[in-house]
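Project outcomes to date are best conveyed with an example. Our students and postdoctoral researchers have been running inverse folding experiments weekly, and each run begins with a structure described purely in tokens. The record below, which covers 216 residues, was selected by the lab manager from last quarter's runs and is presented without edits.
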């Protein structure tokens, strides 16, 4: 197995992002190896979501490069996206589909098949027992968030980019998600996480990056 700390797999070099006429951050550089978690901190408006979207290839930075295994992600968009799972503020689920259907469609879009029985199993693990076949529009916000987070349990992606993943979760779901993220890191994944909540995802392989005026 690759030693997670021998060489960086995700490298950010001289990154700058602008919103309107305001510079959110400039000349930002860091690297992450497999088996590392980055806890991204900063006040509202400091550019955390913008940085995550840039790292996910969803927006172009003003300047700088994002490299995966030494290659600019703009030149390897499809290849990079196969290694990536991005979970933003929106759950990205379709209200007319059940939780099971949403999870199976998500798997197909990410290039792998998920059996119906496995989908039921995963949704049970994430705490949706009894709600698996309801149209998602009838679920609570916390339940919808669980449907979105269930993707983490089936994803083969190496890089997880998670923007406030603990929002709207109860204590049991928070503990489960912490364990899922920790397991991903132990299995030589990379995770970049923002959260306002005090959660126990920090480990010896966690690094902190603060945007704006906050300091780690």
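After processing, the design step wrote out the following sequence:
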């Amino acid at each position: 197995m690759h030693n997670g700390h021998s060489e960086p797999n995700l490298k950010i070099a001289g990154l700058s992002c602008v919103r309107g006429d305001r510079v959110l951050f400039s000349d930002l550089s860091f690297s992450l190896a497999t088996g590392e978690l980055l806890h991204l901190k900063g006040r509202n408006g400091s550019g955390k979501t913008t940085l995550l979207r840039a790292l996910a290839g969803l927006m172009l930075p003003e300047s700088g490069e994002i490299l995966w295994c030494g290659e600019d992600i703009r030149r390897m968009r499809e290849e990079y996206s196969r290694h990536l799972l991005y979970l933003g503020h929106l759950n990205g689920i379709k209200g007319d589909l059940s939780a099971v259907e949403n999870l199976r469609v998500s798997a197909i879009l990410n290039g792998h098949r998920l059996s119906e029985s496995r989908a039921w199993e995963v949704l049970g693990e994430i705490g949706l027992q009894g709600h698996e076949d309801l149209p998602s529009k009838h679920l609570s916000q916390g339940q919808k968030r669980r449907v979105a987070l269930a993707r983490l349990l089936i994803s083969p992606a190496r890089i997880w980019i998670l923007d406030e993943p603990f929002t709207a979760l109860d204590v049991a779901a928070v503990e489960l998600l912490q364990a899922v993220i920790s397991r991903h890191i132990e299995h030589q994944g990379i995770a970049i996480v923002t959260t306002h909540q005090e959660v126990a995802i920090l480990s010896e392989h966690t690094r902190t990056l603060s945007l704006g005026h906050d300091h780690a």
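The chain has a mean pLDDT of 86. The CA atoms of residues 109 and 171 lie 30 Å apart. The training component of this project remains on track.
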